[in-house]
Amino acid sequence: MLIVEDEYIIANDLSIILQDAGYPVIGIANSVAKALALMAQQEPDMVLLDIYLKGKETGIDLAKQLEEINIPFIYISANDNQSVLEAVKATQPSGYIVKPFREKDVLTALEIGRYRHSHSVEQKLREEKALQIAITNALSDTGDWENRLLIITQLLQQHIPFDFLTIRHQRLGTTHNYNYYRIGFEEYQLLSLQTIQQMTNAKVDFQLLPPGKLLVNGSVRYHQEGLGTLCQQDPFIQLLVKTFRFESALMMPFSLVNGEQFIIGFLSRNSESYLARHQALLERLEQPIVLTLERVMAYEEIARLSNKLKQENSYLQEEVKTFVNFEEIIGKSESLLHVFKLVTQVAPTDTTVLVMGESGTGKELIARAIHNQSSRKEKILVKVNCATLPANLIESELFGHEKGSFTGAFEKRIGKFELAQGGTIFLDEIGELPLELQAKLLRVLQEKEIERIGGKASIKTDVRVIAATNRNLEVEVTEGRFRMDLFFRLATFPITLPPLRERPGDIVLLAHYFARKLAQKQRKSFLGFSDMALAELTSYAWPGNIRELENVIEQAIILNNGQTPLVLGRPLEKRLFAPNPTLSQPKSNWVSERPTVSVPRDLSEMKQMQQATEREYILAILNQTNGRIRGSGGAAELLNLKPTTLEYRMEKMGIRKILTVQPPDS
Ligand SMILES: Nc1ncnc2c1ncn2[C@@H]1O[C@H](COP(=O)(O)OP(=O)(O)OP(=O)(O)O)[C@@H](O)[C@H]1O
Hints:
Blueprint: E1 2-4, H1 8-20, E2 27-29, H2 32-41, E3 47-49, H3 59-68, E4 73-77, H4 82-90, E5 95-98, H5 103-140, H6 145-157, E6 164-171, E7 174-182, E8 188-191, H7 193-200, E9 220-223, H8 224-233, H9 235-244, E10 248-255, E11 261-268, H10 276-318, H11 334-346, E12 353-356, H12 363-372, E13 381-385, H13 391-399, E14 400-401, E15 413-414, H14 416-419, E16 424-428, H15 435-447, E17 449-450, E18 459-460, E19 464-469, H16 473-478, H17 484-490, E20 493-496, H18 504-521, H19 531-539, H20 545-559, E21 590-592, H21 603-624, H22 635-638, H23 643-652, E22 655-657
Parallel strand pairs: 1-2, 1-3, 3-4, 4-5, 12-19, 12-20, 13-16, 16-19
Antiparallel strand pairs: 6-7, 6-11, 7-8, 9-10, 10-11, 14-15, 17-18, 21-22
Helix pairs in contact: 5-6, 5-10, 8-9, 18-19, 18-20
């Protein structure tokens, strides 16, 4: 027992009464200061307390401190002034003994006080345990964080007073912020950062800083100057304090082993809201809360990773052909070698690259070569085709969405930018991106941050961007279909792929490369091209470029029996330039009486031209089969026609034999 009483005789009487009854007395203090000094040496189980003492401080001042550290006390006083009694009541004493007292009065008050205190301690422990269970349950819930934290806000209000609760979750450089403004007894308004910005008329973007030095080691209470210091350190808290006129705060960090941190801030308009017992309660809750958060975050991380893996897997199934080296990019023309040089220069940097060129010129191949020669090659290369996605889905495809962010968003989905984290994103057909999304993409490129649709916070990205287009983006810009700022941003390093017709030397190389590759795939031998086929290949304009060439060769391989040189499976329809004179003309013993037509001027001429190429084609096949029409390996079989039909067509086209070689079946 500690006796705090400035009248020595009374104090001595009390001491004797207590000791006789078996209560050890640790000391007698005649002022608050002395009482605190004695308590620093030995903590009493209970304090008997007079109201007016030596010095300025009263028993009521000491009572407030005792209440904070949870030491029960009983007043002993003759003072019956109403306002003093009110103040006494507010300190929640365990009893009150009126002077002058009898021994019996003291002992009875002590008995009752001790009982009440131990009972209230037990009650408090029970309540605290229930609070802890309710908080950990709410945290483990599967709902979104706003709702989970709202439940926690309601639970905490019963134990720690506040007018505003702000929770900051810091993770991998991004910060999520949840703000609950108390508007009724059990009513809270969830305020987004934007709403706070509007409410406060904040001109500049306020920052959500990581906790200052003050918060590194556990909870801190702030009143008056302390609150001022906190405000200097933390512009967001400062904004709240100024706007809502808060006078005190209690902040507590919950630090997880993985480096994540949740900081909870209680703010109150009352200047003395936060007592040591509030702080102590938070500290006791720290361990169970941190353990629960670690478990919950680990589960969320696993769910996120498995979702990412699932998306990556299905993506990789579509996109198995990632590995591209220059050896697989065929061509020796000057213009292609220049492209290789540019690729080698830009690949090791993180620069955004814009690959331009007609359709089928190999833009994707070049994008892959850049990725594979960069330091990101071990990471994923994600392709997005901006032309094949419906406009309303591109945003979600690129940036992802939160569950319920729009009709049909049943599940949270990460976007391709997030999927490409650490790697490269290839934005094919960028010219098709709707204007509205061009602005969003520009922001992402500039700020290196994305925001999921319906998401509350931005996510830092580390993604290299390679874009490709077969449109002339400069024309698109002048005609208002493409943003100039985005164009300049993308075209930091432009690479233009030459069309195939501008590098005729590569046609033969590519044709052989594809023929060998495709013949091997179909387990056929490849005996080279017929002269006619080569002439056709090199004199054609290839509007579909390498993709078209690959298709033409594939058809030819399918039709070829593996025992004769390759002829083309179908006539090449449009000749935009004259046959290559360096290649020898087909040696023919079959001739056509009609001249071939090269460029159509109208529909009838087009028809004529088609007939002409068909005729050439039949001639080529006939030369290849040495004039044989019927039987296995004959021209009719190669052309997939009945021999009689072929003969009829030949007659109509004026194809006739001029040499004496007699084909066996004709
Ligand atoms: N130099 C090359 N060597 C070998 N194969 C090539 C070369 N260039 C392109 N290809 C092949 O040609 C096809 C078309 O190439 P790719 O898809 O890269 O063209 P693209 O310019 O991206 O076309 P689009 O604009 O239509 O998307 C692919 O099968 C690719 O492997």
